[in-house]
Amino acid sequence: MPETGKIQVFTGEGKGKTTAALGLAWRAIGRGLNVFMVQFLKAPDTSGEHFAAHAFAPMMMIKPMGRKGFIRRRGWEPLDTVLAELAMEEARAAMLSGEYEVVILDEVNMAVHLGLVHVKNLLDLIGAKPEHVELVLTGRYAHPEIVMRADVVLEMRKIKHHFDDGVAAREGIEY
Known about the structure:
Order of helices and strands: EHEHEHHEHHEHE
Structural class: alpha/beta
CATH class: Alpha Beta
Number of helices: 7
Shape: globular
Distance between the termini: 30 Å
Mean pLDDT: 91
CATH architecture: 3-Layer(aba) Sandwich
CATH topology: Rossmann fold
Radius of gyration: 15 Å
């Protein structure tokens, strides 16, 4: 168990933020730590990590709490705000439960950027973090106040990507 958990932020326009968080989770599980990931903006059974998490149970729990489809394409609706608020409640409960040494809020930065989560609520959650918990926040557009509170901030930057050539996301690789 880590003596002092840190706050890590994986942000930026490039891909790999969730993948980096999952890599951290895999390392933690390998050392006997329990991991909880709540996913903002992602629907159940839509990403490969949802299926893989079953192999890591009970040491890893992934709870997707979004609706299917990309908010930027369909626009957000009041239900998206409700789901984001529920995801914040799940994250807080897991973080304070004593069951998990690593808690990941996947796409929470984007939820803040879209206005589904108030930055103050995320800062309050960070302030309530038990000392031993490693807290990981992913998603584009990390709010400057979140960046200031973090111990580690990594920015993924796209240099080149096949999406720009019209290649769609590939099952098992991008999701």
